[in-house]
Write a structure and sequence with these properties.
globular; 7 helices
Length: 136
């Protein structure tokens, strides 16, 4: 377990930091009654970024409202549900002695980067369509 935590400490730290920011935002909103816009891009341009709606997606998921969580920000939903599955699978593989290959060839790295960029761009189009243009 120690080796697993050490190997995934960065991922766990990012998720914990993100969760702390969301919880702080929720606490501030409840105390002041004012909705916070944490997104600097949206504050400067008035246009939501690819990550806008993430907090609402998390809250909807915590309420058990999966369709609403997907509507707010699909990529956040995929990340939130996929990360525990990935961490669990990695932990299980380490327990049974199997090693997941993490070394990627240059070509595979390029493919992974392109897939991530396409996913972020598609997610941004979704967010813009639903939050900026108001299309359901």
């Amino acid at each position: 377990m120690k080796h697993f935590l050490r190997a995934h400490l960065g991922s766990v730290a990012i998720v914990a930091l993100w969760a702390s920011i969301i919880l702080a935002g929720i606490w501030i909103e409840k105390r002041t009654g004012t909705a916070l816009t944490l997104c600097t891009f949206k504050r400067l341009t008035g246009i939501p970024c690819a990550g806008c709606g993430s907090t609402r997606s998390v809250l909807a998921l915590l309420d058990g409202d999966v369709p609403r969580a997907l509507e707010f920000n699909p990529l956040t939903f995929i990340f939130l549900t996929g990360t525990p599955v990935w961490l669990g699978a990695s932990w299980w593989l380490s327990k049974v002695g199997a090693r997941a290959s993490t070394g990627l060839t240059q070509r595979r790295q390029f493919v992974v980067i392109v897939v991530i960029l396409v996913a972020v761009a598609a997610n941004w189009m979704w967010v813009l369509r639903h939050q900026y243009f108001g299309v359901s």
